[in-house]
Amino acid sequence: MNIGKWTIEKYNFSEEEIKLTLSHFVPKMVKENEFFLKAGEVSNYIGYVTKGLLRSYFYDDQANEITTNFFPEGSLIIVADSFNNRLPSKEYIKAIEDSELSIISYQEQMDLYKLLPAWYQICKDFGDIKISEILNRAESFQTLSASERYQKFCSEFPQLLQRVNLGYIASYIGVDNATLSRIRKKK
Amino acid sequence: MNIGKWTIEKYNFSEEEIKLTLSHFVPKMVKENEFFLKAGEVSNYIGYVTKGLLRSYFYDDQANEITTNFFPEGSLIIVADSFNNRLPSKEYIKAIEDSELSIISYQEQMDLYKLLPAWYQICKDFGDIKISEILNRAESFQTLSASERYQKFCSEFPQLLQRVNLGYIASYIGVDNATLSRIRKKK
DNA sequence: ATACGATTTTGACTTTTGTCAAAAGATTAT
DNA sequence: ATAATCTTTTGACAAAAGTCAAAATCGTAT
User: How far does A109 lie from chain B, in Å, by closest CA?
Assistant: First the structure.
């Protein structure tokens, strides 16, 4: 089971353990424009995207839709605050394309902690990767101009450029729609 | 041992286990303007701040000093990328005031994993708190204006206002020095 | 192909933020 | 107390980004 960054190879699991882990996951389809999670619900699943593309977003005070993340194949979807602390989510997660996920429920995941002590380690490592990703994102906002953030987005996620609305990208990099259009125009 | 958000109370440790945990920590003083970590070094300690105030910063491409965090009493200092992946740090961590920390080395911490399986859980939970903090920070950049970010900083960290240079705050909220001065002027 | 809706671009204008350099104010060392 | 240094404020200006509304473009369903 090699799932990109989210690999469990390095934990030297036995066949047994791998089977045990995988047996706790179930497949799930999410059709284009359907929700994997709605704001107000408590996130009850971690999802690994095997196919397709989803995005997360929420509404700010002025009811603007703010895109916070894209989840193409190979992504792990965890709505950290909601899933970990059993709180209602602020975010929606919606499929941009027909998508296939492999999901594990909160409860199943708790069971795994008991059956497989390494599961804590795995989850901690996954968390560490998330931390690096978000730090990187915060740093971009802190130090880069709108146009530099767009450049960076393009080089980090070239595959997404063809697959998502520019409006989503604009909001993801924290820029007005019209401004992104102008940024793209000049070179 | 109640250390604010970073509490180990909820893990229902025995006296033994608490002693075991604490025995792995050692005290460390960092005088004003001294470094807890320098860029280029591999971060070898997690530090819990019991007294004083430190900050983390790095230099961007144009050699601007960018403040990324403040660590007053009650903070947990982990330079995630460097500590977890044993990579040289981009960041400096320097004391703004004479500070006292309680630190645990990478190795000691690894030993704790073996002696105390719950240590993984604790570290995962600490990571989850960090994730929420950084997400909150990224969201501020994504959705708030410079002056709103300053307001938010003031209400989130009122104690820091009196204790750190405005220049550090400006950089932390991603705003030019002169701009922050003007923001503060008008009301 | 046509028409509808959604997305993207454009124009004219405003507001926000940055830049640079100088002045004012604080702080520290001698 | 004074000089030297660091921090903060200010002014004049420039650049970046936002706003609003209309036009152009694209995609899809009929």
Answer: 13
Angle in degrees, 0-180, between the axes of helices A15-23 and A106-115, rounded to the nearest 10 = 160
Q: For A121, which of B68, B120, B174 is closest by C-beta distance? A: B120
Q: What is the pLDDT of residues A121-155, one digit of tens each?
A: 888 888 989 999 999 999 999 999 999 999 999 99
Interface of A with B in 51-90 (CB under 8 A): 60, 64, 66, 68, 80-81, 84-85
Count the neighbouring beta carbons within 10 Å of the beta carbon of residue B57: 19
Question: pLDDT tens digits for B65-110?
Answer: 999 999 999 999 999 999 999 999 999 999 999 999 999 999 999 9
Q: Among residues B46, B163, B45, which one has the least CA distance to residue B96? A: B163
Domain formed by A24-114, architecture = Sandwich (2.60)
d(CA A71, CA A65): 17
Class of domain B13-116: mainly beta
Amino acid at B155: S
Residue with tokens 């730090």: A135
Minimal CA separation from B151 to chain A, in Å: 16
List the one residue out of B140, B142, B175, B167 whose CA is nearest residue B156: B140
> Domain-by-domain residue ranges, chain A?
24-114
